[in-house]
Amino acid sequence: MSKSKEIIAKDKQYYATSGRIPYYPLVIDHAKGAQIIDADGKKYIDLLASASALNVGHAPDRVVAAIKEQTDKMIHYTPAYMYHQPVADLAEKLAEISPGNFTKKVAFGLSGSDANDAIIKFARAYTGRQNIVSFEQAYHGSTFGSLSMSAISLGMRQKIGPLLPGIYHIPYPDAYRGLYGETEPRSAEGYLQVFKSMTENYLPKEEIAAVVVETIQGDGGLLEPVPGYFRALADFCHANGILFAVDDVQQGLGRTGTWSSIEHFDVEADLIIYGKSLAGGLPLSAVVGRAEIMDGLQIPGHVFTTAANPVCCQAALATIQTIEEDNLLQASTDKGAYAKKAFTDLVNKYDFIGDVRGIGLSIGVDIVSDRQSKSKDSQAALKICNRAYEKGLLMIAVAGSVLRFQPPLVISYEELDQTFTILDEVFTELANGQLANYDVSGQGW
Ligand SMILES: Cc1ncc(COP(=O)(O)O)c(C=O)c1O
Predict the structure, then answer these.
(1) Residue spans of alpha helices (H) in 298-327
(2) N or C: less crowded end of the chain, CB within 10 Å?
(3) How far, in Å, CA of 414 to CA of 431, rounded?
């Protein structure tokens, strides 16, 4: 039995099934940059960056050194009771790099999920309003608050209710498909109308605390919004005392070429949350917001014993330093344009590619059964991913049909070229019917 098979057999015996979305039998042994080596020595190019949690790549030198140094000095003392320098430095740095021309404060947690819960708490406490509006097909996390704001998976919500009250969902302003089976997108105002009519009929504006957005909707299919939507939504929010909050857990920290993805949309957010890549892969999340909002929550409204531990904070400071000193924001923009051009060239060859979208190195490729109806071809998307996996590329499909392309920002141009050579081969195999009997049942979400 191979080492990978042995490890998976043990995992199947002891690891709770709810903690994994099934894709490939890949047991990762070690990794560097954008390269992964499995337990049996096979190499892969990582196009997923651990769900965008490794923007600075695997085992980045500065982050590894910072972790080692801090671990020798002190692993933890809870900031709920005491102070330490790394958390003060990190709060200052996050306030500095986050957009928004106002005084900011920062709160910390351990995951993107708890940072979303924090939005609910800070927004409710500051506004004195109860309701939160998020988007259909959003994914905000797995705690009760963040899960209540999510609307992407029945399995995630079944049998555990009741979820949090006071959460409403509006349609994401998809720039590719339209609303509920429509093939053409609506205008910004056309999408916004759904929300406005809710507020005119059953959801009083003055009882809404915050709207929470993913700029590019990640797990929902790397969807891009129609132009002008977020500007119009933010105007509506601010005219009605509703906070505008951005979940940048997946799209932040360079993924789209900017510190916060909201910078692409000419909108100032009242609250921004980060997670995933923040500490180079260690568990850390942050809420950055207007000081008056952040101070609006009672003491001790948001404390976690192991949040913001100095090791994670030093890893985060080293992550941000790496992004700055290695120009990774620009790298994301440049490599994103390079990859988008390569995908767009493939559009001309393969008519099952319905759409190539995204900003920077956050790209989605929508696989369709025909371009007219834009019907999702989930089987084809999974077949592509599985065949690519066999050929040494690590990529998954989300929202059924969308190839998720979010490599570490440190991926090299050679690795990108290798990737597109392999993808072209896989696409040809699919087009020639060579993947017809490929079994991908039970995979994905
Ligand atoms: C946009 C977004 N928000 C929140 C989360 C949840 O983060 P975590 O898994 O760290 O709790 C995710 C995870 O995929 C995400 O993509």
Answers:
(1) 310-325
(2) N
(3) 26
- Select from 93, 78, 85, 33 the least CA-distant residue to 59: 33
Topology of the domain covering 63-325: Aspartate Aminotransferase; domain 2 (3.40.640)
Whole-number Å distance, alpha carbon 113 to ligand 1 midpoint, is 6
CA distance 441 to 385: 13
Question: Hey, which residues does 45 pair with through a beta bridge?
Answer: 35, 393
User: What residue ranges line ligand 1, CB within 6 angstroms?
Assistant: 51, 111-113, 116, 139-142, 214, 218-219, 247, 249-250, 275-276
Measured in angstroms, how far is the CA atom of residue 139 from the centroid of ligand 1?
7
On whether the 3-56+327-431 domain is CATH 3.90.1150.10, my answer is yes
Distance CA 65, CA 359 (A): 31
Q: Where are the domains of the chain?
A: 3-56+327-431, 63-325
